Amino acid sequence: MREDYMPQPIADVSPPRWHLGHTTWFFEALILREFIKGYREYHPQYAYLFNSYYQSLGERWERIKRGHLSRPTVDDVYAFRAAIDTRMEEIICTCPEENWLELEQLIIIGINHEQQHQELLITDLKYILCQNPLHPVYRNLPDDAWPDVMPSTNLDTWVEFPGGNYTVGYTGDGFFFDNERPVHTVYIMPFTLRKYLVSNREYVEFVRAGGYTDFRYWLDEGWSWLHREGRRHPLYWEHDDGAWYQMTLHGYRPLAPNAPVTHINYFEAAAFATWAGKRLATEFEWEAAAQQTHPHVTDGQFQDTGIYHPLSPSPSETAHRLCQQLGTVWEWTQSGYLPYPGYKPVEGALGEYNGKFMSSQMVLRGGSCATPRDHIRYTYRNFFHPDKQWQFTGIRLADTLSD
Ligand SMILES: [Fe+2]
Asked: pTM of the prediction?
C-alpha cells in the first residue's frame, strides 16, 4: 500500500520510499556524475535527502528523520528512478570500449548495493507492519505453504571438522566486497557445529527456564540491554492464553515449533548458547565448515521463494551435512567485524562502503530468507551491532573439540 512507503518507526528502519530514492541516488552519484561530462543532477536536493552515510559526497538529511517528510511523494521518487534508469541505459549503450571495464564494475557494485537494500526493504517493512496492533498482512499465504516438519533425525546432531590451517576470504573471479579480502590463512582448533539451527521449540524452553531472568547467561552489555528494553522474549513474539504467537509478513501466526528461531540479537544468541553449554561459531569456523560441506545456494530458502519467514527444514535440506547453512536465517558468529590482515579501503566514496564500520559490530554469515539468492557466498560478511533484532537472524551452536 502507498501508506506503507512512509513510516520510520525507529532509526534503523528506513521508509520504503527512502530505500527506493537512495538506491537510485547511488547510481546517479557514483556513476552518472562520473561518466557524463557536465552532468546536471535530476533534482538539486535529492543528494541531500538520499545520501545515507557518504561524508565525501556531501551533507545529508538526518537518518532518524527520514520518515518525517511527506515529500518527495512516492510518485516523485518513482519518476526519479525512471529518469536515472534511462540515463544509465544511455551511458551503457554509448560507453567507449576503453571505459567499459570501469563502468561495468561500478554497475555491478550498484546492483549489489541495491540487493542489500532489497533485503532491508523486507525487514524494514516487517518492522513497520508488525509494530501495528491491527496486524496487517503483507502477503497472504495458504496454510500448506508453512509445513512445520520435525526433522527425522535428532536435533542434537553434531558435525565435526578437523583443526588446522584454513585459507579464508574470497578467491573466485566474480564480485566480492572489499571486506572479503585479503585472502589469508587462519589456524582453527578442531571444532564441531550443530547440524540444525536452534528451533523455536528449543528457544521457548530457554524462555521457560528463566533464560531472560538469570544474569549468568548474559554478557554484561546484553544484561543491560535486556533491562533497558524490558525484554522477556524475542522480537515479534506474543504470549496469549498459554500459547506463543509471532508476527510475520504473512500474518499473525502460532509459533512454529520446528522452524528456526529468528529476530534474535547477538546478546540473545550468546545467552542461549551459554544456557545450552555451547558457544557460537567464529566467522572462520563457519567459512571453513562451508568449504567442506559445500552448501549450494539453490538449496537454501532465499528472497525469491516469496516466503519471508524462515521455514522448518525441508527433507532435501535435512540431507545436507549442515542443514540450512545458506539462506533461512543469518547466523550470528562470535567474531567482531574487523579488517582482514592488510585490508585497505579503496580511494574515494566507495572506500566508505564497508571499512569505516569496522568497530563494535559482530559478523553474521550465510544469508536469510530475505536475501536475494545470487547475493550470497561462503565468504560474505554481514555485520550488525549486537543489540539489533530486526533482521532475520538466528543461532547455530558450536563447540571446540579437544585435540
Ligand atoms: Fe545504501
From this structure: 0.97
